[in-house]
Amino acid sequence: LAHAEEAQHRAQDAGKLETDWQQEILGALNSPQHQYYQDQRPNQRFGLSNAEFKRYGRQLIMPQVGLQGQLRLKAARVLIVGAGGLGCPASAYLAGAGVGTLGLVDGDTVEESNLHRQIAHSTDRVNMFKVDSAIAYLRGLNPNVNYIPHRAHLTPSTALDIFSDYDFVLDCTDHPTSRYLISDACVLSGKPLVSASALRTEGQLTVLNNPPRAPGASDGGPCYRCVFPRPPPAESVVSCGEGGILGPVVGVMGILQALETIKLITSPPKAAAGPPSLLLFSAYSIPQFRNVKLRSRRLDCASCSANHTVTESSLTSGSMDYVAFCGVTNPVDILPPASRITANDLLSTLSSASPHDDDAPIVLDVRDQTQFELCSLPNSINLPYQGLQTRLREDTQILEDLKGRDVLVVCKLGNDSQLAVQMLETMSSGSMKSIKDVQGGFRAWRNEVDPDWPDY
Fold first, then answer.
1. Mind telling me the catalytic residues?
2. What is the per-residue burial (b if ≥16 Cβ within 10 Å, else e) of 33-51?
3. Superfamily for the 337-448 domain
4. Is the pLDDT score of 40 beyond 80?
């Protein structure tokens, strides 16, 4: 009987231990930590983790994406060159869509003037590298993406090495020199290129080198040189800082870049590329969008034709001088020292003269009317450099009124004012009494004379 009771107690203890063990296991399985790791682990049956199904479910159910499209996004490696107005929205939507690896190239730091349009940056990250600021924002949006920062400007010697690690490239820069460089590197490395630009209230978008083929292949997509064989005149190139940019305009173009990239990634491997085209956007036009058909590869293209002169060696050796090719002229320095005065000289001249005197110096402000209305010097005259030559020809009285007076020409940065001085001297055949440029423009005026002058 004693042995029977002892056996019964042992059985009860064993049963209790088994029950306790089962409860412990069940508790661990139901814990938030276990559920998190289960959600993150790829499901061998379906290819994505439970967390990925939840995160991307709204696009997964679309036939244009589906499971295979999402898996292609997860495997894709995308490089964004430029983390500014275009790169911020483009990277945000690509990260949100679940692109597996996202590289960002930019050597600039965040400035306060960027924040009205570069939505990945914030006030507390001013002076931080743009790529670091953008990645901090993107990680908050989707921590599952592999982000790779390239904290430097793209150069001919580094472009091919960087591009080799990626499948698709987005040109989110704002100058012809970088556009030609990025396109050439994409042709040589066999990468499709999604290129966009935006200025003032207008934007352009095109997909280049798609499908990517070796130079000389007739079935390859055109490159940037095919569309624009010659760069625009250097004096016609206007930056956002000079011409202005409406934030939503550059945002629209960046989002469209992300959309075109997602379409490229999720398309079946053997899907035919659409005909090359250029999408034009104008915020104040009706309709806002127009599509222009582009020609195929040019037979004489320096980059992608059979007789191409842009090669890997010419690119990496530095013999391709993109700055010289595009004819960059800024900052302008065309006047002799005798034809220029400093901001302090301007202050002294204005302080010693009475505006009521018939021979008082004339301050000629050659900024556009919008900038002139933002801020201007008392009694200054607005004569915008844009269209100045035509206006002087149509109204000869302007030059007559300026003769016999000391004329001081000023603009925002001191570039247009030099060109205006040169033009006025030429068109007056040297009959002006005195005409001088204010060196450094209103930026110098703010730094040297009036610290409260608006900095825009």
1. 240, 411
2. eeeeeeeeeeeeeeebbbb
3. Rhodanese-like domain (3.40.250.10)
4. no
